[in-house]
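Example record for the data management plan.
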Amino acid sequence: MALYLILIGYFIDVIMRKQFPDINIVKEANKYLIIVLLLLLILRIFFEKLPQADFHFFLCLPISKKDIIISYIIRLLGKKLNIIPYFVLIPFWFKNIFFAYSITASLYWLLGSVILSFCFALLGLLMKFIFFEFKWFLGLLVGLVVFTIFIDYSSALDIIKAASTLYFDSLLQSSTFVVFASIIVSIPFIFFTYKALYKMLYLDYD
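Corresponding structural encoding:
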């Protein structure tokens, strides 16, 4: 499966240009990347489980809740739904961005993708926690999504595309400000995920 995804990522520009000869493949990718992350967020909400850990009874380990939670947040980057997109993204980046832009711009673009993907992964975990704690929130969220689609689906989609284009185009312009802003924005996600996991994890030793 990984090989197929790598091949898709490497040859997707060829496939797209056969259908749309005048397409700017990087601009189009920038436009839809946040939409892809939103779709992955939906998959996380419905298919990913809340973190679980198994311990032997009466096994004394000098491990605090803090260490377990930090370890889990770091390992979150290695979960399937976080890794799979990069089998497509990295070959695409290497072929279409790395050689076409400066090293700084291409690395910023890749780093921005990783940070944004990590934030969406944490958001998915937070939403699962909220659904677990407050069952009514799921109904509220579904109602809000349906209402948004019913009112003006195309406008909502255009706003997301514009935001995605602005973010990734700025990274390709070597915007250090956008990179630092992305890192700063990720801090609240990490903090609230840590607090949520801390509340959920019950250990005799702390």
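Summary line stored alongside the record: Residues 136-172 form the longest helix (37 residues).
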